[in-house]
Amino acid sequence: MGESKMAAVKKAKNKVKRYYEEQDEHQTPGGNVDGTDNQTESPKDVPQLPTEQKSRRKRVKGDLKKSGSNFISGAKDPFPGSVSVPENRLLKYERARKSKLGRKYSPYVQHHLKTQENDVQTALGQAARHDILLPEEEGFLEGDEGQDTCTITQEDIAEMVDITSASKHFNLNLNQFGPYRINYARNGRHLLLAGQRGHLASLEWQSKKLICEMNVMETVNDVKWLHTHTMYAAAQRRWLYIYDSQGVELHCIKKFNDVLRMEFLPYHFLLATCSSTGFLQYLDVSVGKEIAATCVKSGRLNVMCQNPNNAVIHLGHHNGTVSLWSPSMKEPLVKMLCHRGAVRALSVDKTGMYMASSGLDRKLTIFDMRTYRPLTSCLLPLGAGSLCHSQKGLLAAGTGDIVQVYKDTSVSPPRSPYMCLQVKGPIHGLQFCPFEDILGIGHGGGFTSMIVPGAGEANFDAMECNPYETKKQRQEWEVKALLEKIQPELITLDPTQLGEVDAITMEQKHKEKVERLGFDPHEKTPFVPRHKLKGRSSSANLLKRKKKVAHEEQREQIRKSIKVKEKQKEQKKSREGIRSPAEQSALDRFKK
Amino acid sequence: MSEEEDLFVPEYPISASEDEEDSDVERKHQRLLDAISSLDGKKRRKLAERTEASLQVSEFGISSEGAGDKISLSDLIEPIQKSNSFSTVKKQLNNLNQKKSVELPLSKEETQRIQRAAAYQEASEEVEKWDHIVKQNRKADQLVFPLNQEILKPTPIEEKITGWTARTPLEQEIFSILQKNKQPLTDPLLTPVEEASLKAMSLEEAKLRRAELQKARALQSYYEAKARREKKIKSKKFHKVLNRSKQKETLKEFEELKKTNPEAALEELQKLEKARMEERMSLKHQNSGKWAKSKAIMAKYDDDARKAMQEQLQKNKELTRKIEVVSESEGSEEEEIIPDFVNDAQVNLEGPNPWMTGKLSSETKDVAQDVDCKMQSDTEEDNNIKATEKDSDPEEELSEDEVLLKEFEDKRCERREQAKEMCLDSEPGHPSVLDQEKVEAEADETGEEQVSEFNQLFQKLLEQNKSQKKERKKKSGGKTNEPVTEAEEIAVEGPLLVGRLERKQDLEEVSALAGEEWEDEQSTSLMVSTKDDQTKKVSQSGKKKVAKKSEIIDYNKILPVKATRIHTPLLPTTVDDEEDEEQLDDQKMIIKEAFAGDDVVNDFLKEKRSAEQAGKPKDISLVLPGWGEWGGTNLKVSKKKKRKFIIKAPPAPPRKDQRLPNVIINEKRNVMAAAHQVNQLPFPFNNRQHFESSIRAPVGSTWNTQKAFQKLTAPRVVTKQGHIIEPITQDVFQKHTSTKKPAVELNSRKKQGNDSFHKSTSKRKKMSS
Predict the structure, then answer these.
(1) DSSP of B79-124
(2) Which regions are flagged for Basic residues bias (chain B) (predicted)?
(3) Do residues A212 and A193 lie in contact, with contact meaning Cβ atoms separated by under 8 Å?
(4) In chain B, whose CA is at the least distance from the CA of A52?
């Protein structure tokens, strides 16, 4: 019975198409037009009526809408939608603290949060897509087979490169006023030179145009540009002075005495100084106020650098420790023992992930600042007296009168330097020029500009700092930067801390609220089993029913974790690969 | 009237003429009765009514009051109904009787309530219409007021084209060319040629096609019917034969395919492989099924059953056998592989570690050889079997089976012989082994045993090993009285299965590695360690805590990274001759002297410890000296009291720098920064993570592309300047319905498609079943 029925059904379904049906279909414009249309038009049998044309056009439009393509010809895009961005490029732009949305919200809220998340994701994708607009790539020196790149001299490089680049390698013979400290402005156009015996000079180094030059007739310990090249600070024998680009003294800040080293935090407009009296002081240059003065309590402070990622100041001490400071804390955020001898130089790379430190034990050690663990270490002859990271992560170390530049220091301890250069005197100041493949070296015999291929960032953000800015642009930028100034309290180890909820205060507030109200408004009401009749609400039964729903959250977690474990197992299995039984032997179980 | 009657008719109208006393007695009696009847609880006690004289019926007046005393109309009519006159009156009275009385009008409150309910119903229906729109507006990312604006859209090109005519001579020329070539002018989907070709199918062609289709259909139905019929046949033999023939055919086809189309052949092979895998996964042809078990019981007595079982096993074997793609290189490889892993174990046991085997090496050799021989013979056997199998393939079905059975028996015989030989070889003092052999032999004879070939082999090997071990023990005990170490035992035992342990690293190697370490490192570490010793000596005054700490933290691990030395082409001028070792040593000495005073590491550890201590929550002591005890100077508080009155602080949470000996991380809160943080979850959020995730991405133009920035900062409500925002009207419904319609149609169409799909799948299922 069943079979015959089935056959009947099949017959009905598999109805063979008759030729007239096919014809009919061809006559009617759309295959998917209703039966009613079919009836009305087939008897007329008039070919190509205008109405028919219209209806066909309609269908075409419909098709276009359905397929989402705008081709007139009706062709379909085989790969509809925009091209997806590769995962790793998206990761570059992903922010911390991403979490999945729970299902605890009302539909409206859920919808809004979802759309918001979608917007964020699309923004992220667009940003990743715009990577195309960064066409420049850095390139490094590559020696011939058997040739070490560090044997290539500056003269060789200068010969090979174009004239403008070649002109960037030069020497300034200034042997009168002793070892020089240097500082490049943030956009890399301007250079400050400060001889220890009082010689101060600012120049546009690319055009070799001297802007101002003077002798302050005092020892100058350090010199730093402030936010623009119109002002700079000089740490002189007793006090801190601020000059404008013409060398006119603007301020003499007597609160900052005996300053040895300075760092300028551009986004906070803070000038951090450390003195021989053991004080770390912060000066807000936008308002001219001292923000914080901390006694570090570890003697003379002459090693200092900033972490450009989170604006934390690193100080090196004589007992081999490095301490991290923020103006809002009176104690070091982190203190780490880096060397057995005193710390001689420090530098943190642009990402804020790696810190290089060198000590009296002649070691150069790279630390991971996320875990505070040493990564690599190497021994330099004589040890490094000054260190500097380039924008692309090259590390320059001044040992005696020799500059060594290292590549990929965070990955593996370098066997030999990437580049080397001997200068005419002991090295006193080192800095890579931003957005240029140039390393500036201040030493006893003056100043040397060294070409280091691949050192600088090739793509600059003109909104952020523009090497080619005009006066007007600079002024506008200044106003904007002042408006976007970050408060000094926000200098923390984790720069994204502001995006975090202050959990402790929140809990405290919640506790107070509970005390005030007498009950917890956010607490879940406990599960009360329904009362049932006929002895089904016995205490045992109630307990049982309660148990059924108890610990639901934990259960959910456990379920998830089990799933994850299973997945890992599977992956492991697939990685190991299933060996065929022919290959396996009973002896395999004793293999180790 | 008797008294009893009175009792049962409680409110019998009592005439007033009866004297007071009598009625009083009756009433009392009545009350008593009521009380009694109410005792059993079923009947509620009626409230005793108070009867008054005026209510009672008397000869002088009728009162309408009294229970059940209402006069109904029928009572009045009764006398009339008996007489036939008064028919009209009767009718009227009847009419009166049928008519119901008009109900009382409802009270004002009630009418109002009903009105309100109705009004609410109506209003809610009216409002419900708007629900959808309100929802949509709430969900909308952006609302632009006034709402009903016409959105300007670019018109599609086709619409433009239709209204467009060629004017210039060039255009006209182009159009004429297009027309000549019958290219589409207005609607560019299909050219007339294409359309014509679509249409062109003559009647004959159609008929031909129809006939073809009919034929195909008929054929299909025949085949289906045949298949169904064959499927119903229950004879196993028939199916067996059928399957075999099919297999043969497929084999032939496969051979052909091999020659003609190697790729397809490969695919076929893969299919076979898959079948093999499935077979291996299932227990289909193992002896575990219901049928197989029953047969196993029967096999003792029934030859056929035994055969059937063997056949099944054979089938399993065949199916699970790996299919080899015979290519020369691979074949040779396999040949290499197999003997290797067979022989390796013994070879390894031999040479490299003579100490482990000790004096007994020669004997082990013999045994090993024995085993080796056996293994080889076994492998040979296997090869033989394979060869015979291959040979027997092209033979006929029945003969194939016979051959197989024969082979099995032959093998069994061989095995038996071998076992006997072994028995002879091994010392004749092992009754257990012999017994087992005998049992086995018997089992073989009776054909009871169904253990697979491999299992047997394995068992034998084990037995053999055991016997060997025993021998060893005896011999060693006899010859030398040395205690046999366990290691030796292990080494001796299991010549087949115990793989030799390989040492991956030597001590020497490790030391060599250490030697590579930089000299300086070593010296400094030495320095530190000596200092450690000193400090330990000093601090061994009983402070266990400190000792523990120092145990946990390895001083050498505090600055653990080994420094590599760098070779530079240029050396600083001042240290040109630094390389000289003497000078180096000198320098080291100088440095040591310079830093003799300060032990940097120890200082740091002390600092860390104190920081840890400071960070720990402290116990609260509520001890009051002198309470419950003697007071005075130089008196200590008793332990008991301390235990009682000190509130222990909860253990501190683990520090972040717990596992970093060279780091102190400040655990104090940055209050200044915390002041800027959010400390209350804003409205819709109930979870910290969700809120943090929602604010994680910046919306500013600094971090976003222009487009993304605009989208992220788009206002939720936009109003047009100078436009009156009028309340929403009913036109919106029309809009919504008009936009909705196509969606509905699409859905219905989809549904149809789905239905047909379901039908087809269900049909397929039926077919398969």
Answers:
(1) HHHHSSS-HHHHHHHHHHHHSPPPPPPPPHHHHHHHHHHHHHHHHH
(2) 467-477, 760-769
(3) no
(4) B187
**pLDDT per residue as tens digits for the range A350-402:** 999 999 999 998 899 999 999 999 999 999 888 899 999 999 999 999 998 99
At the topology level, CATH places domain A149-478 in Methylamine Dehydrogenase; Chain H (2.130.10)
Of B48, B65, B98, the residue at which a domain comes to its end is B98
The angle formed by the CA atoms of residues B536, B542 and B548, to the nearest 5 degrees, is: 60
Closest CA to B57 of B69, B46, B45: B69
Q: Which of A151, A335, A374 is closest, CB to CB, to B561?
A: A374
**Average per-residue pLDDT in chain A?**
85
Q: Most B CBs within 10 Å: which of A63, A334, A340, as the mutation test of the B interface?
A: A340
**A16, A55, A120, A507, best to mutate vs chain B, most B CBs in 10 Å:** A120
Q: Which of B349, B570, B659 to mutate to test the interface with A (most CBs of A within 10 A)?
A: B570
Summarize pLDDT for B535-577 with one digit per residue, the tens. 444 444 444 444 444 444 454 566 656 777 777 777 766 544 4
Whether A372 sits inside 8 A of B705 (CB atoms) is no
Element (H, E) at B387: helix B361-392
Distance CA A380, CA B570 (A): 12
Chain B neighbors of A398, CB-CB under 8 A: none
Angle between helices B290-298 and B303-320 in degrees, nearest 10: 140
Give a yes or no: residue B68 inside a domain.
yes
Chain B residues near residue A151 by CB distance under 8 angstroms = 569
In a domain, B345, yes or no: no
* Residue B115 reports pLDDT greater than 90: yes
Please identify, among B644, B670, B696, the residue that sits at the C-terminal boundary of a domain: B670
Residue B484 pLDDT > 50: no
Within an 8 Å CB–CB cutoff, is residue A590 touching chain B?
A: yes
Cross-strand pairs, A389: A395
Residues B8 and B93 in one domain: yes
pLDDT tens, residue by residue, A485-532: 999 999 999 999 999 999 999 999 999 999 999 988 878 788 888 999
CA B194 to chain centre: 54
- CB contacts, 8 Å: A27 with chain B: 199
Cβ within 8 Å, pair A104-B657: no
pLDDT at residue A155 in the model:
93
The total domain count for chain B is 3
How far is Cα A224 from Cα A242, in angstroms, rounded to an integer? 10
Residue B57 placed within a domain: yes
Q: Which of residues 114-173 of B touch A (CB under 8 A)?
A: 138-139, 141, 156-158
Q: How far apart are CA B768 and CA A329, in angstroms?
A: 78
* Residue B43 in this model has a pLDDT that exceeds 70: no
Find the residue in A nearest to B604 (Cα): A337
**Same domain for B647 and B552?**
yes
Same domain, B85 and B179: no
Q: What are phi and psi of B44, to 5 degrees?
A: -75, 145
Question: How far off is chain A from B221, nearest CA to CA, in Å?
Answer: 10
Contact A587 B497 (CB under 8 A): yes
ipTM: 0.77
Question: With an 8 Å Cβ cutoff, are A492 and B497 in contact?
Answer: no
| Rounded to 5°, angle at Cα A299 from A296 and A302 | 90
Q: Where in the sequence is the domain holding B600, given as residue range(s)?
A: 542-561+583-628+636-670
What are the residue boundaries of the structural domains of chain A, listed by start? 2-64, 149-478
Cβ under 8 Å to A: B residues 422-461: none
Interface of A with B in 103-132 (CB under 8 A): 104-106, 108-109, 111-113, 115-117, 119-120, 122-124, 126-127, 130
Query: CA-CA distance, B114 to B103, in Å (whole number)?
Result: 17
Nearest-CA distance from B71 to chain A in Å?
50
